[in-house]
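Work Package 4 report. The design task specified in the project plan requires that, given a folded chain encoded as structure tokens, an amino acid be chosen for each position. We show below one input record used in the internal validation round.
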């Protein structure tokens, strides 16, 4: 099976996922993309040049197929923007496209909204609430997703925020959602939401798509329990920082260190920045939307990482592995990577291969904190 050749009702394109992996088993599109494109053609919704808002078009499949229109690509993910740019370039397409981070609202008249249902309902809710005032009664709103990810709660959300909502029949295990804009009501966002962890003297405020929105993640908590054993470092990175909890507490332990927060989620970086300033009002730090280390060229002394175990709907350790490999490149000799992970993932095997060493700093029934030191060159 060719995993990169997409034969759609609109055209044939080469499409890849990011990050690119050797023997990538997954495709950049799904049956929901196919169903949605077929529906747009069948219903003649693409006649004339349209201004289309694409939401959560993770690898740019819709952007590529709809390149003749004016496109607004709205997403929380830098990786999604990069994948879309790459797929457009690989197909030698240069559409009129505007990349809008989730932390900003799209602007101007919109004819058509195409929304792929994201992994978290909270992100969907926030996106629907932000886009609603931009739409007119004439705007056509179509959601698309795999049946297993469209729940009653998903449809209830469309109904609550947008208006009357119906679904299509399922086709190849995908479904479309049709929502009609009801302009008589608006729904207020509850994000960012705030919670406290008094035992660590923390109050964290999180945007809708941030990991562990309503509580301190138990993995992060276990990492914090080991912080008294951290080696000092002048330059510290919180890699995949989410709400920034690890970097914020590291700054307390090492007040003279410079902390850099990296995450590919716009909402994560916005939350980390706000939270850092709440806890360290007199300090500055670096906040970079970054695919692993793509936005940070410097060597750093200490990297703290609670790695991701999924990319949108796809589970796997490929992002964690990329983080470990790039961490190795960004550490000087003697610099350390600290990782918290579920024990069953057995990351110590991979880390030992990469660094030649791996210490267990702490472990409990569920988690392990591992530390690796970049060795001197022989
Ligand atoms: C398990 S969460 C940890 C969040 C936070 N450090 C904590 O401990 O609560 C993993 C984080 O990695 C981020 N992430 C996923 N892929 C990434 C990538 N390619 N580059 C940078 N960050 C990424 C996710 O957005 C998420 O915030």
């Amino acid at each position: 099976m060719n995993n990169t050749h997409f034969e759609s009702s609109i055209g044939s394109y080469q499409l890849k996922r990011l990050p690119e992996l050797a023997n990538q088993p997954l495709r950049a599109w799904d049956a929901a993309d196919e169903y949605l494109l077929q529906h747009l053609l069948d219903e003649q919704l693409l006649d004339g040049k349209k201004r289309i808002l694409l939401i959560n078009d993770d690898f740019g499949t819709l952007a590529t197929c709809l390149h003749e229109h004016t496109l607004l690509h709205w997403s929380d993910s830098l990786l999604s923007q990069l994948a879309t740019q790459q797929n457009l370039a690989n197909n030698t397409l240069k559409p009129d496209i505007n990349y809008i981070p989730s932390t900003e609202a799209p602007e101007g008249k919109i004819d058509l909204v195409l929304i792929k249902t994201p992994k978290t309902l909270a992100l969907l809710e926030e996106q629907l609430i932000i886009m609603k005032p931009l739409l007119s009664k004439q705007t056509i709103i179509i959601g698309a997703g795999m049946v297993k990810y469209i729940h009653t709660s998903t449809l209830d959300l469309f109904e609550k925020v947008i208006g009357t909502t119906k679904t299509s029949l399922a086709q190849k295990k995908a479904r479309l959602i049709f929502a009609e804009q009801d302009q008589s009501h608006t729904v207020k966002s509850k994000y960012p939401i705030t919670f406290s962890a008094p035992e660590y003297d923390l109050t964290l405020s999180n945007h809708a798509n941030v990991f562990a929105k309503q509580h301190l993640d138990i993995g992060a908590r276990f990492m914090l329990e080991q912080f008294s054993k951290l080696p000092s470092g002048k330059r510290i990175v919180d890699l995949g920082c989410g709400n920034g909890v690890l970097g914020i507490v590291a700054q307390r332990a090492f007040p003279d260190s410079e902390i850099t927060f990296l995450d590919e989620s716009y909402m994560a970086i916005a939350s980390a920045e706000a939270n850092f300033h709440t806890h360290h009002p007199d300090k500055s730090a670096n906040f970079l939307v970054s695919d692993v280390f793509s936005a940070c060229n410097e060597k750093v002394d200490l990297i703290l990482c609670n790695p991701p175990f999924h990319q949108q709907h796809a589970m796997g350790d490929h992002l964690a592995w990329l983080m470990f490999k790039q961490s190795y490149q960004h550490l000087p000799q003697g610099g350390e990577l600290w990782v918290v992970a579920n024990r069953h993932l057995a990351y110590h095997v991979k880390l030992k291969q990469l660094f030649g060493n791996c210490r267990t700093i702490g472990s409990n029934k569920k988690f392990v904190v591992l530390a690796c030191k970049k060795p001197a060159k022989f």
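The CA atoms of residues 245 and 310 lie 20 Å apart. Validation will be extended to a larger panel in the next phase.
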